[in-house]
Automatic annotation (TrEMBL):
Cross-referenced CDD domains: TPP_PYR_DXS_TK_like, TPP_TK
GO molecular function: transketolase activity
A Pfam family this chain is assigned to: Transketolase_C_1
Substrates-to-products reaction catalysed: D-sedoheptulose 7-phosphate + D-glyceraldehyde 3-phosphate = aldehydo-D-ribose 5-phosphate + D-xylulose 5-phosphate
Record's protein name: Transketolase
Function text: Catalyzes the transfer of a two-carbon ketol group from a ketose donor to an aldose acceptor, via a covalent intermediate with the cofactor thiamine pyrophosphate.
Keywords linked to the UniProt accession: Calcium, Magnesium, Metal-binding, Thiamine pyrophosphate, Transferase
Similarity section: Belongs to the transketolase family.
Domain Transketolase-like pyrimidine-binding: start-end pairs: 367-538
Subunit structure, as described in the record: Homodimer.
Gene3D superfamilies: 3.40.50.920, 3.40.50.970
Keyword Zinc recorded: no
Top-rank taxon, per record: Bacteria
């Protein structure tokens, strides 16, 4: 006989608090149990525990239209505790997202499905960001909230007026990036950001008490958040809490929901055993009985499914009203809004790039490439109102602030420059969120050595295909006296190892401008600019409109007919290669100097171009960083003039001399490999 009420009296008591919400939530629980069991892999506990809250949110508050999932003014929903992915997939299927079919749910964690183990941006509609690495979801959501406020300030709240909702677990709040996000959001008063905390007292290793005993609510309050607590299985209490959070516009909101992980499971609820393992057939059957679910696996009763589908269309009228408001705007406003959201560059952008190039060729400049970056940003940010900059407390060193973005983002006014504070990881994730939201091109700066702090967010940029721009200055031992703690050695090799990331180490002012042009145009590939502290001469002196940096490498100088040796260099060491080539040519050798600002772009060129650029002669590489990886272009690491250990604290010239990155060292190696 079908069960129509929970058998377990404690569960029945919870169900009685809001019976309809409980019944709808059971759809999520059942699908999550079934999908994880079918895959024999996954995390059923969190979806089972958060199902009541997710139902309240989608049923009563979340502004969305399942039939139009990309509606710009939709609320954003971020599942920061991404291991609970079946919660999100269940919601998307139940509310009627067309691509999230029951077949996709049944193929959870299988090859070719859109239901990956953790939510992946671009796999399915309704997944706003890739999550799984804990804490990054909430930090990315901060970026979305930053973007919403800034876009509303430009186009008005009749076009931009939505919330960012985030589900987090204990792990997100234990991660350092979680605290970076909480602190920044509170400081800037992001009142349209609402976080629901799955406070279930369980992590993978067991109860949170083994490693976590702080007062979470007090921590959020100390950071300037509006804080509430409620029963995470009480639909009415959850509804009231979300309503109160929406009413608080001056502060971000935390709702600490006391929940039971694996809610409904007679033998596993409240234990770590339900966190990352399937319930199994027997426990699944017992759970169905306990919660009053009498349906076969993957079967949702028609009445409940119909109610869920109604929830999925609840926002259609809001969307239609929004479309009418957009249509009522002037053509100028409407076109600009649509351009910004589409990512299309404005008509004046190409002219701004050309004017900047022409100015450099007309009057060559000697400058550090960090300064060259600032010079490039001056005209480009003026031509691109969507560019929004920032730095992790290193603005004066990164030189990321220019006139067009010289308006501070504060809680009172969302300017075009964000002071991220000493939060490199949080900055990187927030920039991802800004770009994911749409309407902006976010860039931010720190030292290259601190890319280690931001690395996992950089990796997610690449994984998602989001064109975040990372400005990384002080790119080598050329930083000088600050010493080895601040001198990146292994970092270029490490960053070049990340798929779908374009690393650019320009040699002069022209290459730096071209690097910025590449980064701005690549909206689906993140870019990282490695920039120098020390001055370098402008090496490109011949005019022309072709962006040679976009080729990844090109012959910068040719000394003599043919080649006896090819010198390949990046960044500040290109000038050393040119000087060495001049000396070698005076000694009778024919030498080509190849500037290689980007391995990734060069490797993407046709084979014919690559072979013509590198040539058949012996090759030597020069870069003031670790030698690792250069053997893809040269015969051995002996042919790399670079670093074999960490740096030291001393003036720049002394460091280059002591570590053997000199014209004399290049010349000596060239003579050795050529036998001349």
């Amino acid at each position: 006989m079908p069960l129509d009420s929970p058998k377990d009296p404690k569960i029945a008591a919870k169900a009685d608090l809001d019976p309809q919400n409980f019944a709808l939530a059971n759809c999520i629980r059942a699908l999550s149990i079934d999908a994880v069991n079918a895959a024999n892999s996954g995390h059923p506990g969190a979806p089972m525990g958060m199902a009541d809250a997710a139902t309240v949110l989608f049923r009563n508050h979340l502004k969305f239209d399942a039939k139009n999932p990309d509606w710009p003014d939709r609320d954003r929903f971020v599942l920061s505790n991404g291991h609970a992915s079946m919660l999100l997939y269940s919601l998307l299927h139940l509310t009627g997202y067309e691509d999230m079919t029951l077949e996709q749910v049944k193929n959870f964690r299988q090859w070719g499905s859109i239901t990956a183990g953790h939510p992946e941006y671009g796999h399915a509609k309704g997944i706003e960001t890739t999550t799984g690495p804990l804490g990054q979801g909430i930090a990315t959501a901060v970026g979305m909230a930053l973007a919403e406020r800034a876009l509303a300030a430009e186009f008005g709240d009749d076009l931009v007026d939505h919330h960012t909702y985030v589900f987090v677990g204990d792990g997100c709040l234990q991660e350092g990036i979680g605290q970076e996000a909480i602190s920044l959001a509170g400081h800037l008063g992001l009142g349209k950001m609402i976080v629901l905390y799955d406070d279930n007292d369980i992590t993978i290793d067991g109860p949170t008490s083994i490693s976590f005993s702080e007062d979470v609510a007090a921590r959020f309050q100390a950071c300037g958040w509006h804080v509430q607590k409620c029963d995470g299985h009480d639909g009415k209490a959850l509804d009231a809490a979300i309503t109160a959070a929406k009413a608080e516009t001056g502060k971000p909101s935390l709702i600490a929901m006391k929940t039971v992980i694996g809610f409904g499971s007679p033998n596993k609820a409240g234990t770590y055993s339900v966190h990352g393992s399937p319930l199994g057939r027997d426990e699944a059957a017992l759970t169905r009985e306990a919660i009053g679910w009498a349906h076969d696996p993957f079967v949702i009763p028609e009445d409940l499914l119909a109610e869920w589908r109604k929830i999925g269309t609840r926002g259609a009228s809001d969307r239609e009203a929004w479309e009418a408001r957009l249509a009522g705007k002037s053509a100028e406003v409407r076109d600009e809004f649509n351009r910004r959201l589409s990512g299309e560059l404005p008509k004046g952008y190409d002219a701004a790039v050309k004017a900047a190039r022409d100015a450099l060729f007309a009057e060559p400049r000697k400058a550090a490439t960090r300064k060259a970056s600032q010079m490039a940003l001056e005209p480009l940010t003026a031509a691109l109102p969507e560019m929004i900059g920032g730095s992790a407390d290193l603005t004066g060193s990164n030189l990321t602030r220019v006139k067009a973005v010289d308006s501070q983002y504060t809680r009172q006014a969302p300017g075009r420059y964000i002071g991220y504070g000493v939060r490199e990881f949080g900055m990187a994730a927030a920039m991802n969120g800004i770009n994911l939201h749409g309407g902006f091109i976010a860039y931010g700066g720190t030292f290259l050595v601190f890319s280690d702090y931001a690395r996992n967010a950089i990796r997610l940029s690449a994984l998602m295909g989001v064109g975040t721009i990372y400005v990384m200055t002080h790119d080598s031992i050329g930083l000088g006296e600050d010493g080895p703690t601040h001198q990146p050695i292994e970092h270029l090799a490490s960053l070049r190892a990340i798929p779908n990331l374009t690393v650019l180490r320009p040699a002069d002012t022209v290459e730096t401008l071209e690097a910025w042009d590449i980064a701005i145009r690549n909206r689906n590939i993140p870019s990282l600019l490695a920039l120098s502290r020390q001055d370098v001469p402008q090496l490109r002196l011949d005019g022309g409109d072709e962006n040679l940096t976009a080729r990844g490498a090109y012959v910068l100088r040719q000394f003599g007919e043919g080649r006896d040796v090819t010198l390949i260099a990046t960044g500040t060491e290109v000038q050393l290669a040119v000087q060495a080539a001049e000396a070698l040519h005076q000694g009778g050798l024919n030498v080509a100097v190849v500037s290689m600002p980007s391995w990734e772009l060069f490797d993407a060129q046709p084979e014919e171009y690559r072979m013509a650029t590198l040539g058949d002669a012996p090759r030597i590489a020069v870069e003031a960083a670790g030698k690792f990886g250069w053997t893809r272009y040269v015969a051995s690491e002996d042919d790399v003039i670079g670093m074999t250990g960490f740096g030291a604290s001393a003036p720049i010239d002394r460091l280059y001399q002591e570590f053997g990155i000199t014209v004399d060292a290049i010349v000596a190696r060239a003579k050795a490999v050529t036998g001349k």
